[in-house]
Specification:
single chain, TIM Barrel, eight-stranded parallel β-barrel, two-stranded antiparallel sheet, 14 helices, binds flavin mononucleotide, oxidoreductase, Aldolase_TIM, OxRdtase_FMN_N, FMN
Length: 369
């Protein structure tokens, strides 16, 4: 029985296309687990899920979140987001379905639905991991997040096609391993975001220029996934920035258009975030632009102001936002008022994996963070 102040968070919600039901309104957003094998001298030995990967998700399942997203899973082993990523690459020597099945089963063991996050990091990979990243264009990321980054090479059309096929293969693989669908990482300045942003996409072919062209890669991936997975059964989710908080980056107006295109293409779930490595708004440390805003002061959420507007653009998909939620009563209020459908949690569940069940039972109200 949920505590009266958080009743709205305890309500189930269904994804309209897939029909999947989430038992409550709180999800564990994607958070890199860094629990895959790593061998700096041999790519063949990188990316196999380790026992810790299973343990983490077992713990997360017991904590009560209705939906559990896995963190970054690169779809190309030459393009890791960081060392120790679990990787889904058709060239890996092991059976990918068998390798991912135990962690997915662990995440789903207490009734949560599970959406692993698929990623192409593009230029946003530290140079100690990859000195030769590929991106939409050759725009290098300056030092940020205490790291330095290599000069990227623009992806050729064939390489884009290969990536599209890899995303489709990876999505199919995790579903065969038991997952309820996938989430694409199109936020935080990673690969899809680099295509969407005029700051990092200087292409002159059909993948650059107009918004339609900059969104093409992401939409092609959604279409390819959909061709393999019936959306009437599986969830396609997208983590999307409300905007990049940088001059020349993705704008709120354009992201709203992309959001609608994605919904029309079959996306059933959006996790709204913001910022890139150069402007890491998702960490909540862009003081002037975020923490001073009255709505953020009240709810804690960094992006509620934009997510609530994005919800109005949608006609069907479920939308949540992650970043800054620390007070269960404020989370419940935002859901009760219909500002958003769900609330995503990252660091609070690292600090206390049982935060969701504790807030629903009324044992705690705020995260210790
Ligand atoms: C250690 C760490 C790893 C993260 N890994 C991912 C990731 O794999 N994918 C992703 O979309 N966001 C990732 N994020 C961002 C979080 O999902 C989330 O957007 C951010 O932590 C803000 O939410 P919070 O205030 O609830 O922590 C990561 C954040 C941290 C701190």
């Amino acid at each position: 029985m949920a505590s009266p102040n958080v009743l709205s968070l305890a309500q189930a919600i269904s994804f309209p296309l897939s029909g999947k039901t989430v038992r409550n309104r709180v999800y564990r957003t994607a958070l890199s687990e860094y629990s895959g094998s790593y061998d700096e001298n041999n790519i063949e030995n990188c990316g196999k899920p380790l026992p810790r990967y299973i343990e983490l998700h077992k713990e997360m399942a017991a904590g009560g979140a209705g939906l559990i997203c896995f963190g970054n899973i690169p779809v190309h082993r030459d393009h890791m987001e960081n060392i120790n990523n679990a990787i889904l690459d058709p060239n890996n020597a092991w059976n990918a379905v068998d390798a991912f099945r135990p962690a997915i089963a662990a995440a789903m063991s207490q009734g949560a639905i599970c959406l692993p996050q698929l990623t192409f990091p593009g230029r946003q990979v530290p140079d100690y991991v990859n000195k030769h990243p590929k991106s939409a264009s050759d725009v290098q990321l300056g030092p940020s997040m205490d790291k330095t980054y290599g000069q990227p090479t623009p992806l050729s059309r064939d390489e884009i096609k290969d990536l599209v096929n890899r995303f489709a293969w990876a999505a199919h693989t995790v579903v065969k391993a038991g997952a309820d669908g996938i989430v694409l990482h199109a936020a935080h300045g990673y690969g899809f975001n680099q295509f969407l942003s005029p700051e990092t996409n200087k292409r002159t072919d059909e993948y650059g220029g107009s918004l339609e062209n900059r969104a093409r890669f992401l939409l092609e991936v959604v279409a390819a996934i959909k061709a393999n997975l019936p959306v009437a059964k599986y969830v396609i989710g997208v983590k999307l920035n409300c905007h990049d908080f940088s001059e020349g980056g993705t704008s709120f107006a354009e992201q709203c258009v992309v959001l609608k295109w994605l919904e029309d293409a079959g996306v059933d779930f959006f996790d709204v975030s913001g910022g890139t490595y150069a402007t890491p708004a998702w960490r909540g440390n862009i003081q002037k632009e975020l923490t001073d805003r009255p709505i953020q002061r009240y709810y804690g959420s960094y992006f509620i102001e934009w997510a609530q507007e994005m919800k109005k653009v949608l006609s069907r998909a479920v939308i949540g936002t992650t970043g800054g939620w620390r007070d269960a009563h404020r989370m419940a209020e935002a859901v009760r008022e219909g500002k958003i459908d769900m609330c995503g949690l990252g660091r609070p569940l690292r600090e206390n994996p049982f935060f969701v069940s504790e807030i629903l039972e009324g044992k705690v109200r705020t995260s210790n963070l």
